[in-house]
Write a structure and sequence with these properties.
The chain is α+β, with helices and mostly antiparallel strands. It contains twelve helices and eleven strands. The strands form two sheets. The protein has an eight-stranded antiparallel sheet with strand order 1-9-6-11-5-4-2-3. A three-stranded antiparallel sheet has the order 8-7-10, with helices on one face. Strand 2 (110-112) and strand 3 form a beta hairpin. Helix 1 (2-28) crosses helix 2 and helix 4 (75-85) packs across helix 9. The N and C termini lie far apart (48 Å).
Amino acid sequence: MLNEFVNFPTIWSQMYDHCYENYKGLTKNPKWLLMRKMSRFEAGRNIMKYLSYSSVKSHQLSLTNKDSIFPQINIDEAVTQLKKEGFYLNLQLPKKIVREIVEFAKNTACYGNRKSQLGFYYHQRAEAEAQLKKNIKVGCYFNTAELCPAISKLQNDSQLLAIAAKYLEKEPIHQGNQLWWSFAGESSDWERRQNAQMFHYDLDDYRFLKFFFYLTDVDNTSGPHICVRGSHKHKKFSHVLMRKREKDREIIEYYGEDSFVTICGEAGFGFVEDPLCFHKGLTPTEGDRLLLQIEFATTDYGMQNDNRDTSNLQVLN
């Protein structure tokens, strides 16, 4: 009985997430909801791959590294590593691009805990928390490609598109960008669950991938990204059937701790990941982390972008 009581918050959270997903899908995009139900199963992904196959191999695009800021990338090596491990490291942003995005982040309002009415500037976080009388764990930006030319340039980079095209085996469609701060400090289980700081995998399409770039130095104390090697191809059936946020113990028991890959790097370091891998961001304890995510898929359901009507965005006084 005690164990049931202890686990009740987790069970309630899972029920809430499930109900909210169904509500959001039914009211905004039923096609997206169907994808979320089917894509967790390999058979579902394979069926959709077969149905969407084109005799014209659209993924064999005439993409070159002309004007790319990543001319050094070996496309074949990146895709081979992605297929095998579920991720590929060693992308590197030029310092100029890093400076531009960081400057944008420090001079543009971010939104606490992803709430459009909780806007504040990075240097005003303490004031915002005092005004709200609660902690703010993440600060997200909206309309990033429209407002930040450097991010717009990245989402259209020919080398990133080439990796996406070859991996997805289809012409890549840009699903959206996400730029956010993860603020240092202690977090509860609920906060970690809400902010992707517990192990999970994503279901944004039948085939998709994400590019990540650190805009601040990231070590073991400042929120490194952790992914589980090979988990995009092999999962415990219960993890497929009952998708939820998993505690470290559950993942270690099945995949082994040696499958954990902790990704650290200086500002500008980047990597690409198949988000069907189990992954999470560690909660920063010393130093805030600024991260940019750029996502490509085979379909855009209109659910992953950061586009917001500016009339609905409010900055705290």
